Amino acid sequence: MNRLVGDIRYALRGFLKSPLFTIVAIASLALGLGANSAIFNLLDQVLLRPLPVKEASQLVLLTAPGPDRGSFEGDNSERIFSYPVYQELRDRTTFFSDVIARYPTRTHLGYQGQSESVPTELVTGNYFEMLGVTPLHGRLISRNDDLVKGGHPVVVLSHRLWMRRFGGEPAIVGHAVRVNGTMMTVIGVAPRDFFGVVVGAPTDLYVPLQMKAQVTPTWDRLEDRTMHFLHIMARLKPGVTATQAQSAIQAIYIPIRDADLAAMTGSKSERFLERFKQKQLLVHKAANGIPTFTESAQTPLILLMVMVALVLLIACANVANLLVARALSRQKEIAVRLSLGARRIDVVRQLLVESILLALGGAIAGLAVASWTSDFVVASIPTASQAALDPTLDPRTLWFGLALALITGIGFGLLPAWQATRPQLATALRAQGGAVIGGFRQIRSRQALVVIQVALSLLLLMGAGLFTRSLVNLRKLDPGFQTQNLILFALDAARAGYPQPRVQQVYETIQERIGAIPGVRSAVLADIVPLSGDRSVHSVTVPGYTPKPDENTAPDFAVVSPGYFRSMGIELLGGREFTAQDQQGSRRVAVINQTFARYFFGNENPIGRTFRSGRVDPLDYEIVGVARDGKYDNLRNETVRFVYLCTRQQKDLSYMYVLVRTAAPPQAAIADVRREMASIDSNLAIWDVKTMESHINETLFAERIVAALCACFGALATLLAAIGLYGVTAFSVARRTREIGIRMALGAGRSYVLGMVLKEVALLCVLGLGIGVPVALALGKVIETQLYGVAGRDWLSLTIATAILLSVSLAAGFIPARRAASVDPTIALRYE
Length: 832
Fold this sequence. Notes:
The protein is of the alpha+beta class.
């Protein structure tokens, strides 16, 4: 320990004597280590960190991939089930200690005259008990709160909602709040770190599942086997694995599957029956929760982690180069210590202590880089997911940064330390003043490190080019409507307590009042906003079209108000759009898109043709218009068959978006829209207020994060490589000063010397490119699925990246090359 303390003191004194070396080394490592810590912090929260519940490793999620029929309300049809299926699984399984179900939605929460829309979960009575969550205040929902349909008006608040809306006042427990117009009692507050079972989708309010009719007033269907809406999770009994549970559960699932088949309406082909009877219930480990957000965030985060790892490797190579140069300048000191009896291991330990201290200094300085990077990434993701991701560096991230610093400190310090302790003692001791330049081996080591830096920099620059071009291609896409000067916000009059006959009137009033605001051109309604990722899919039957066995003829649907197409700038290629005359009781009408028309009618005119949709009460619709194709759920997907229905002809209206077209830039009108909505009904909460441009940016959050950070990391890597190349060139020029003087004395001109040095710089760069180009092309092929409109082997991106590296490398080498060309031969010939 005394020796270690002595080594640390000696190293710190040495750093103070070489401030420029210390600053450059620590700054290089701070950039690499800080970026790694930031991305790990987010990767840990999204992919690695288990849910803050009891024994999260025992949690599993159930899915049933394969064909199915019915109504689906959720993010993924494979992992949502009906309530009867949940009941049968809960009551029949013996290898799960418990089974829970949940349904995410939104509710209007009113308290003391103020209302807001909050993310809500309908949960079974055993939800908190199975997860092992304990209340912060009061109690949580129990089995006794989920027995009678509509008979348990109680709620549990999240810690976030409790602090924001109720000021963290424990006395709120026992008081009543209004949920969708129904008075419910607050019975407890969830713990601070519990946000639900879906990372990226925090829940603010928990309500018993038996209160579904009050939470979803426009549809109940709790006992309907064909209504799929519940996620089902279970806890394995001790000693039971997920594989064992999956094998055992199939016997229980067979009668459940048969009951589902019997409940289906309509004809079923032999192929469908065969595939449906082969369906199995799958059991997935769910220690990290339900992977709704993680599925979209996983690949971008892993790509970013790979990128920052490359940046760290480049930084390590840069610091290793600095340490080699520093060790060579200390060869006489090292030779003296070895001659006086110091063991080689002692000197190596001393040099490793120095490199580890540099790494720790870089880790500490990198905290600022990590904080900035985390803030940037979290700010770039959709607003709804930001609350579940904390940019603050937690202890797990700090321990990761510390471990990474120790590993890198040893990694980049070992080679210089090993080389420095192998000097030619006689030569080193004869050297003047310790100015030992080093031999051929040391030069080659430093050049090899520069070649590696150039190769890794090319990978990052290539990635930056690919992801930037992909993002540009997506932003250039025509979504099929005009995105400028457009505001959107969501509301739900039915959940605000309005009876269904009044809901239609409320929405029409909102349209008229918002449309009359100065500077607003129009206001229209839609239950699905373009590019939101939301989908409403229903099967159709078209007279004259005979579907093939198991053919999926179901198009996407949206309900929109009269004037929607004109306001949104969607071109009608034939027929008309909806008007005020399209009312309840009149002939039901629909507008279809080009893809629907081509699919079902070929080259025939679809205007005036009909189709039927609906399972329980099928309805006939007359096609009155054909709209130009556009992008519906996201910019990447191919155009789907799409049908628009009129709001005035719908029996029940619930969740709707209001889309406001303004004459001027829309940001200024947002405040006016909020004031007008408050004057219409202060209890009618609105949410998701934003411009269409912001909405589109949110849909491209992954592409924007990857492109921006890859460009930053590519520029950083290139800068580090340039510093390394400058150092090696300057070192080489200093070592060859006498040789250069002789050449100039024999007649070599300044341009010759300048070219000679730059050729060596170019050679190192070309060697790095020779390694980097094939690797970049191979990696480009690997990430091709994440790109849009650009091939992984994109020669334009590769050419630009190569040109940047060559230019920066020659610029970095030009300064020492010019210095070499300015050498006075008489001074150089006396140089030692």
